[in-house]
Amino acid sequence: MTNEALIIVDLQNDYFPGGRWPLVGIEDAAANARLVLNRFREKEMAVVHIRHEFPADNAPFFAPGSHGAQINELVLPNDGEPVVLKHHPNAFRDTNLRTLLDGQGIRKLTILGAMSHVCIDATVRAAVDFGYDVTVVHDAIATRDLEFEGTTVPARQVHAAYMTALAFAYAQVVSTGDYLSR
Fold first, then answer.
1. Residue ranges of the Isochorismatase-like domain (predicted)?
2. Domain coverage including residue 175
3. Is-catalytic flag, 119?
């Protein structure tokens, strides 16, 4: 048993093509997430899946009970892998995630999933605030174009800005290839 866990954040159907909120590069990110997930399973290390649902049926995406709110088939949980349901960007807020990790003696987290600028950012920062050592697998994370005051910011730039900020003060930010070659 190691003191490390993989946290897969919000790789849910609404973020994929045909979903209600598709992300740029989600299929490549999910394929990379699957590679990291396979490594954790091969080594019999802890895996925790995070699934977001908005509390209202009229949600823009991740509506309760919908197909879009379900975890995508590329990273479906195996028996025994916990799924933490959240209603906020930060996967620690009002969930049992910290209790679950601390109960297993987990001190190191590898985090990937979606979206770079919201749930990944919020969860990584909270994890560091709680004292976890965090690694982020940047190419196993996706986001979307954003708009601010009439300016569209392409997803690639959104992602780069958030990964740069996390790498500056919060986490080790690595590629899937670098992560798997450790």
1. 5-148
2. 4-180
3. yes
Mean pLDDT of all residues in 16-20:
98
What is the per-residue DSSP string for 36-88?
HHHHHHHTT-EEEEEEE--SSTT-SSS-TT-GGGSBPGGGPPPTT--EEEESS
In terms of pTM, does the model score above 0.90? Answer: yes
- What is the domain-level CATH number for residue 15? 3.40.50.850
Given the residues 14, 119, 121, 139, the one annotated as active site: 119
One of 10, 14, 121, 139 is an active-site residue; which one?
10
- Full DSSP string of 78-104: PTT--EEEESSSSTTTTSSHHHHHHHT
Q: How many CB atoms lie within 10 A of CB 174?
A: 19
The CA–CA distances, whole Å, from 47 to 24, 66, 97, 98, 174 equal 25, 24, 12, 13, 19
82-141 pLDDT, tens digit each? 999 999 999 999 999 999 999 999 999 999 999 999 999 999 999 999 999 999 999 999
Q: How many domains does the chain have?
A: 1
